[in-house]
Amino acid sequence: MKTALKSSQAKPFKGIKVSDLMVRCLEREGVRFIFGIPGEENLDLLESIRKSKTIRFILTRHEQAAGFMAATVGRLTGCAGVALATLGPGATNLVTAAAFAQLGGMPMLMITGQKPIKKSKQGHFQIVDVVVMMRPLTKYTKQIVVGDYAPFRVREAFRIAEEERPGAVHLELPEDVAAETSAVPVIEKSLSRRPIAEEKSIRAAVEMIEKAKRPLLLVGAASNRKRTSRMLRQFVDRYGIFFFDTQMGQGVIDSRHPYYLGNAALTEFDFVHCAIRRADLIINAGHDVIEKPPFLMEPTGQRVIHIDFTAAAVDPVYFPQCEVIGDIANSIWQIMQHLKKSKNWDFAYYKKIKGLLDEDIKSRSRDSRFPMIPQRLVADVRKAMPEDGIVALDNGIYKIWFARNYPVYEENTLLLDNALGTMGAGLPAAIAAKLVHPKREVLGVVGDGGFMMNSQELETAVRLKLNLVILILRDDAYGMIQWKQRGLGFPDFGLTFKNPDFIAYAQSYGAHGSKISKADDLIPRIRACQKKGGVHLIDVPMDYSENEKILNVDMKNRTCAL
Predict the structure, then answer these.
(1) pTM of the entire predicted model
(2) DSSP-derived secondary structure letter, 549
(3) pLDDT value for 3
(4) What confidence score (pLDDT) does residue 322 get?
(5) According to the model, what pLDDT value does residue 2 have?
(6) Which terminus of the chain has fewer Cβ atoms in its 10 Å neighbourhood, N or C?
(7) In 3-state terms, what secondary structure has residue 379?
(8) What are the φ and ψ backbone dihedral angles of 261, each rounded to 5 degrees?
(9) Rounded-to-integer distance, Cα 400 and Cα 128, Å
(10) HEC states along 269-328?
(11) Across the strands, what pairs with 155?
């Protein structure tokens, strides 16, 4: 094998240190950033990264945050982001980020160090079987046991991480292997082609759509990953079919489109769910059951066409009658070659729902109460952000309101997690988004609970000299769980806390801190911070007292009779 590789080179390939070879492989894969915290087991690799002319190492304050950043790079670019950690506790700190990427469909490579595997004088100190630990959380995990294998392992890891369905992969590079010498060259990236759906499934889908009375298009996360926006927009425009989206599918088609029925973020009694219940056919473009289901199938309910890169994961709430497996954009294009508008279609009910939803969102956006209600907050953030601005959310009750009420104009400009649903990812995601898109406005929106889980990354943002605005939505409690607790009739218990002075806290890191005192302050404050530059933390007191009424009682009363 080595002879064949050498014979293909114009000049003999001289041996180099395996850590240098690893970095060359990463460069060939297009890696721009590596996020993480090295340990002594990574020092050869760290030195190799230092010598790279194209890769920037971003030192973080916690490995979990490094993983969130790497996953966000993968989400925004489609190319696997890279996180680096040492053995033992460094590797275990990546576990939540691995699940975040794996469930969220975000390509990410984690590289962890390990003690020498051929001769070690430290016994089992800090030794955890990281490969076994990562197995249920990743698509691929390997220890590199021979330096000559490094290029093959890296290429395979990237291929698996980035192919559908994307996710997390892991490589362990032991200290002694990193210091070896190898003469194996870097492996070229393979040219790949996305699969094309078979004609039989296309014709079956066309027949189902033409026979339906109220077909409805669902846009899911996979459509956001692979840039299907243009083709789906043409489909909607040509046939006048109304559509809705999942939380991670927002922005594929501009939310201002006249056929947009909203996001399936709230309870079953929201306006969009009335439309879903009335539909007799749902054309599902890119949604899978890992994301919180936007509808639950029943044996006697509406029929479903599954259009995705991969086959449906059938379970009691999802069992589509037709599967169109292949590149989503191409599948939609093929359907359009055969589909004709049908006289059976009746979209009058959807038009009614569209009007009710638009009026509901508009009426709530003018509420001037303070502390702010989430509907007003969402409306003001939209006004303060440019069309291509990126809003990165943490997890909390406000996330649902952003998913429902925030108009998303472009793909991947509202970053939220509706798969793992972890707290603590909002600030790291905002930092990564700003690194990937330095010329675009990025706004982080975090609850006080989630912010404090990775608040130390403020120092990272300041050190990197980023222009970044972070809103802390403060209610001094784990508000979403508190709302659920009350909904079950339980007394308030175990979910409230005291916060630091966020203004002083921000200033201690070298960031700017401020607090608004009325609802009308928010837009001018955000714009002033954007204009000034630097890292800004804005304390926004929130009132979530309406959640129980709005999300359950009022919504049910208003929509059940529709």
Answers:
(1) 0.94
(2) I
(3) 44
(4) 97
(5) 44
(6) N
(7) helix
(8) -100, 5
(9) 38
(10) CCHHHHHHHHCCEEEEECCCCCCCCCCCCCCCCCEEEEEECCCCCCECCECCCEEEECCH
(11) none
